[in-house]
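Structural biology now treats backbone shape like a language. To illustrate, our science desk offers a sequence and the tokens encoding its fold:
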Amino acid sequence: MAAPSSSGARPTRRAFLAALAAGGAGLSAAAYARYAEPTWFELAEVPLDRALFPAPAGLRILHLSDLHLGPHVSLGHIEQAVELGLAQRPDLVALTGDYITGRLREAAAYAAVLRRLSAAAPTFACLGNHDAIVADGPIGEVARTAAVMGLLRAAQADVLVNETREVAVRGGRLKVSGLGDLWTKQNHPARCLTPRRGPGREPLAHLLLNHNPDARIATMPYHWDLMLCGHTHGGQVGVPGLAEWLAPVSDKSHLEGLREREGRLIHITRGIGNLYGVRFWCRPQVSLLVVG
């Protein structure tokens, strides 16, 4: 979620979240935001209209994002989210980035937790800004990305960086594409999506994984039916006005949930983890999308 280093607004957002974590926003509110809500999962079941996403009827897609294993998010917390998601009997799992905060910790144990997803259903992943290679970044960032890619491959997830796959599910087939991260300039839809040349749809339903919803603009000239995103954390503090200010996206009109855009669907989940160990009126979310 954190804003890119070039953004002058980042220290302000980070300072607010750090102050809330430290009790600077009122003791009772800060205690709730720090110790209660960050581990209180919400299960969101989202119906999908087959007229807009013509996948096999009854298809169940588990959408997890922004796991953020690190100083403020434990592996046990992530494992609880995985267990809750698996209890929903998904046919397909989509992971939409930001698997770590800082360096990768507990790599083998983390891979074992995520491998439970791929053991249950085909699992696809894209990278987020906390995971992705910065083209001119330091060697440490390149090494971090290699570690995250290794983690996901050890978990037997299919990592898509501007790539497309075709998968069999529920007696039918659909396309799954994954884009590289927008902020790190790895987002290249032309490499994996087909240009639109009219109002028609592709023969197969097309699912697109994309960490940052601001990348939507660049994808609109191409075929896809349903885009799954994270990155916003729902604002992480669910107070109207404040959530929009905190969310590190240009489009403040859609921070979470399902929305139709020009005949296509975009779903943004609040994510599993957080930054600075706080959430307030914005619970961590396990999302299940079900095709009607």
